[in-house]
Amino acid sequence: MAATLPLALTMGEPAGIGAEITLKAWQATRGGRPFVLLDDAARVESTAQSLGLSVPVRRVRDAVEAVDAFRNALPVLDRPLRHPATPGRPDPANAPSVLESIREAVALTRSGQTAAVVTNPIHKAVLMGAGFRHPGHTEFLGELCGLTEPPVMMLASPGLRVVPVTIHEPLAAAIAGLTTAKIVRAGRIAAQSLARDLGIARPRIAVAGLNPHAGEEDRLGTEDRAIVAPAVAALKADGIAAEGPFPADTMFAPHARARYDLALCLYHDQALIPLKALDFAHGVDVTLGLPIVRTSPDHGTAFEIAGHGKADPTSLIAALELAAAMDTRRRAAA
User: pTM of this prediction?
Assistant: First the structure.
């Protein structure tokens, strides 16, 4: 039974491209690992019809029924919206439904009814207008899973994996709050996750410098010597294959990427810009440090193309495939 558990896929922002990429992902993966969508079934059906996508939608009662239905139809746990959704026009009235979809997906996975959580893109400004107090998915998922410290975000593509030590905060605040302990914590969680979930027995971690040229021997700032280098030493003392700090302007070149399995970066854009520039389509957001597997596409709601049939499902497909692979590896090791 455990091997056939479906993935739980959340609705995401109803005015965005979530329903479209979900329909297209089902078309592309219907012979693979089943997933069940927590969404307004009527809205999903309407989206399929308006975009000319030949995808039958089946309302299901539970995960078991979803597995049975998946090959022939997109299984949906029907969760009607409070207000009709218009592509490209987010409605704060639907924010509670978006959040409840995430809560339910996490609850289903923690209770063993689904195998992993895959989240469609949300629009944080809309959610915050309705009282959402978290900077993003990552922090919200940590709270739902009962963590006392926030989990770690990893962006992964076939050619690069990155972890930002600081995530959803202004750059000035991220730099001011950067500590050796934060870097060490992120590195430890990343190393453990790469070994457990991706089968990399001894992950090689390259740690980025904070300042240009990694401080250039203190001429361009002292943080790399005072904060980053001690973190690298601490990770090495733990037996982790960590090196650095490296100048961030050269560590993402092809010859440099060949020497490590993950780049540990110090702030959001230092990590996400190179990954998205190199392979935006196949990027996957992975939350490390949770008791469950969670992945997501690495893009947003794309309001400007919602409802036009132009949305590319590649990142969602990659997120579904990676979630399934991580779950399989965890179960095999249990």
Answer: 0.94
